[in-house]
Amino acid sequence: MTSEHDASVLKERARRLASVASPAEATVPLHVVAFQLGVEQYAIETVWVQQVCPLKSLTPVPNAARFFIGVTSLRGRIVSVVDLRTFFDLPDTGRSGWNRLVVIAHESIVAGILADQVLAGQSIDGRVLTTNLATHAGIRTQYLRGVTTEGLIVLDAARLMADQRLFGFGSQDV
Question: What is residue 27's predicted lDDT score, i.e. its pLDDT?
Fold first, then answer.
């Protein structure tokens, strides 16, 4: 049997260990899919990305928010498609044909993010991300995980997926 003192010491030790990231965790790279929105480059961690695919068809939805482009069918699922460029109020630099979708998923929500171009999957060092950049102001900051020294904007997919304005409608099987 452990005494109350031993139990409290063990509890305090566990609390301190839980609050400090181990050196191994601090150096784990973030694996991301990078994509282009206008002139800016964004990325989302690969654990959230279900697939990257061409946008073959799109059905507009009347009276939807400006950033909600419409729906498409992917493997028998109706998937909502959003334009983060419009949602983030980025300047319109001309659209490149809206030919790629970065499909993200979490639980029952599956949605497509419209991308001008998908750049590549890559690993980045999470320690070099900064979140305090004046040039990345506005609605984006609440979805910002960080920005690399090269200017790659890493989005917080958990916050994106939790936003009811963007993905509150989920997806459905057809």
Answer: 53
Q: Which domain range does residue 162 map to?
A: 26-173
How distant, in Å, are the alpha carbons of 17, 68, 72, 99 from that of 61? 50, 8, 11, 19
Q: Does 91 map to a domain? A: yes
SS3 state of residue 163: coil
CA torsion sign, 63 to 67 to 69 to 70? negative
Query: Of the candidates 154, 155, 151, which has an alpha carbon nearest to the alpha carbon of residue 167?
Result: 155
Mean pLDDT of 26-48: 87
**What percent of the chain is predicted at pLDDT more than 90?**
28
Let me know how long the chain is. Answer: 174
Note whether residue 15 is domain-resident. Answer: no
107: tokens are 């639980």
Question: Mean pLDDT in the chain?
Answer: 79
Q: What pLDDT is recorded for position 106?
A: 84
Name the nearest CA neighbour of 33 among 13, 12, 47.
Answer: 47
If you average pLDDT over residues 157-173, what whole number do you get? Answer: 70
Residue 7 lies in a domain: no
State the amino acid at position 149 in one-letter form: T
19, part of any domain: no
The CATH number linked to 56 is 2.40.50.180
Q: Identity (one letter) of the amino acid at 8?
A: S
